[in-house]
Design a protein that fits this description.
About 30% of the residues lie in helices and about 20% in strands. By secondary structure, the protein is an alpha+beta fold. A hairpin with a 6-residue loop joins strand 1 and strand 2. The two termini are about 30 Å apart.
Amino acid sequence: MEVSLERINEDYLFEVSNANGHKVLLDNKSKTSGEVQGVSPMELLLMGVAGCSAIDIVAILNKQKIDPKVLK
């Protein structure tokens, strides 16, 4: 598994990408000026935990022949 991080501007905007070319913009949500253009690193971490949990839950439910549409 490999990711790369590139600084996009002189502010706090970064682009992180993986070996498959998928990209996510990271930004500082608490900055006092300028538009926030990406998720914060902490939000991205929470999204990753949610995604890992969702994949496990869907796998378990699929074995039980249950097809969930939304996980909250």
